[in-house]
Design a protein that fits this description.
Layout (H helix, E strand, L loop, with lengths): L11 E6 L18 E4 L6 E3 L2 E7 L11 E8 L2 E8 L2 E4 L15 E3 L2 H8 L16 E3 L4 E5 L22 E7 L2 E16 L7 E8 L1 E4 L2 H11 L1 E2 L5 E2 L18 E4 L2 E4 L9 E6 L8 E6 L2 E7 L3 E3 L12 E3 L4 E9 L12 H9 L10 E7 L6 E6 L2 E3 L3 E3 L5 E8 L11 E5 L4
Antiparallel strand pairs: 1-2, 1-11, 3-6, 4-5, 6-13, 7-8, 9-10, 10-30, 11-12, 12-13, 12-14, 12-21, 15-16, 17-18, 19-20, 19-25, 21-24, 22-23, 24-29, 25-26, 26-30, 27-29, 28-29
């Protein structure tokens, strides 16, 4: 590689792949748009690989005591990474026929689909032989597609999926930091957090772990540069090899373009100012559901697998993580809205009535008779909707400001115990 230089955050590129470039058996040609995807990250990403330490202190009495401290590195901690991406519908929402058909019938409804699938499902976004494996389900009878966290069997043009998995799927992440290329081995996606602040563009903050972070050098680095672009080991400049053709070799799938109905589209941004929420709440199982629909002034949503790692504690050894397990799956969020009132008989009662209904609900749990639909981007494409069929709402809290408001936290729960059916994602793009 040619002379030394500073490495700038502005030049960072991130890639997600099922392929391990550190293995001598893996060639650059093994990377294709079916198994390797560009992740378009925003400024402020983080990547760290630190160690667990133990300090041994000595403290004796006397005028000339031993007051020394010795430090030992006892274990490598799991690699931690996080970054933020824009939540962008692609239009590739159908897996068979008609407007919106995805290439090779493998749906990728949002630009960072591979991360969503890795978060929610035990099915890898691509198989070992490089074929895509989307778990997005399109129903022609209802003309709608969805990602459901509920456990499901495979069918025509979509794969089986389980959200009740004990071990998160492991892939590889590549951080090209200007001229340095780092690989996070056995990378897992632990959390996805959507921020839909009213004055911004919808974003998702991704975070996760890996077992090891290595700098790619020599032949491994040349393989990475051949696909990701940059300055090769011989000093030559290599152009990034991005392609939306699934049979292309030594290439990756770009983030901002998608093949829909054999046409290349630039994927959409979602404007949060159009977002809203619709809530159904019954005071009891016998009551008629009350529907509350209102715009929001702020909105957040989080899905977490609560992954933890096991690390041995052998003496006289630098221990490394030997595996990971998922904990409780938590689906939480919050929203803020202006405190508005409407008549109780109104078709769309408002936030003041919702506050009153929840506060006066004496049940310890109302999730079985409450649901919510978060409408990021509103009801007109492009949008990203999160439907939660069973929701437990905290008591709304007043926000005292120039315009009075409320703030509400919530937890999505399983409708049926063990089904993993807390959420359904619905996506629509302008591109179909």
């Amino acid at each position: 590689m040619a002379g030394t230089q500073l490495n700038l955050q502005r030049n960072t590129k991130v890639f997600y792949s099922i392929k391990d470039l550190s293995l001598s058996a893996t060639t650059a040609a093994d990377l294709t748009p079916q198994n390797t995807w560009r992740v378009e990250v925003l400024a402020g990403y983080a990547l760290s690989a630190d160690s667990a330490v133990q300090d041994i202190t000595s403290l004796e009495s006397g005028l000339d005591p031993d007051r020394s401290v010795q430090r030992f590195n006892t274990a490598r901690n799991p690699v931690e990474w996080n970054f933020q991406t824009y939540l962008r519908p692609t239009g590739a929402e159908k897996n068979s026929g008609g407007s919106g058909e995805a290439e090779s019938s493998n749906c990728k409804p949002v630009a960072d689909w591979y991360l969503w699938q890795s978060l929610v499902s035990n099915t890898k976004p691509a198989s070992s032989n490089a074929g895509e494996q989307s778990v997005w389900r399109y129903d022609a009878s209802t003309a709608s597609g969805k990602l459901a966290s509920a456990n499901s069997v495979g069918g025509a043009n979509f794969h089986s999926s389980r959200s009740n998995f004990a071990i998160a799927q492991e892939n590889n992440m590549y951080f090209k930091l200007d001229n340095l290329v780092y690989q996070v081995k056995k990378a897992i996606v632990n959390t996805g957090e959507i921020d839909a602040s009213v004055d911004g563009i919808a974003t998702t903050t991704w975070s996760g772990f890996g077992t090891e972070m290595v700098e790619l050098t020599g032949a491994a680095r040349d393989k990475a540069i051949a696909v990701f672009g940059g300055v090769g080991n011989d000093g030559s400049t290599v152009t990034p090899n991005a392609s939306i053709s699934l049979d292309a070799t030594s290439s990756h799938h770009p983030y901002a373009t998608m093949n829909v109905d054999s046409t290349t589209y630039t994927v959409d941004f979602i404007k949060n100012r159009l977002s809203s929420i619709e809530i159904s709440h019954q005071g009891s199982a016998a009551e008629t559901a009350n529907i509350y629909s209102f715009p929001v002034t702020g909105l957040s949503f989080s899905y977490s697998n609560d992954v933890t790692y096991l690390t041995p504690e052998e003496l006289a050894a630098l221990n490394t993580p030997i595996g990971q397990f998922t904990g409780s799956r938590t689906v939480t969020g919050s929203f803020t809205a202006y405190l508005r009132s409407a008549s109780e008989s109104s078709t769309r009662a408002n936030s003041a009535q919702f506050l009153n209904k929840v506060v006066n609900d004496s049940r310890v749990s109302h999730a079985s008779t409450s649901s919510a639909n978060i409408q990021i981007g509103g009801g007109t494409a492009p949008f990203f909707h999160i439907n939660m069929p069973a929701v437990q709402f905290n008591f709304p809290v007043h926000q005292i400001d120039d315009v009075l408001g409320i703030s509400v936290d919530f937890l999505a729960q399983e409708k049926e115990r063990g089904s993993g059916d807390e959420i359904q994602f619905f996506v629509k793009s302008d591109n179909n």
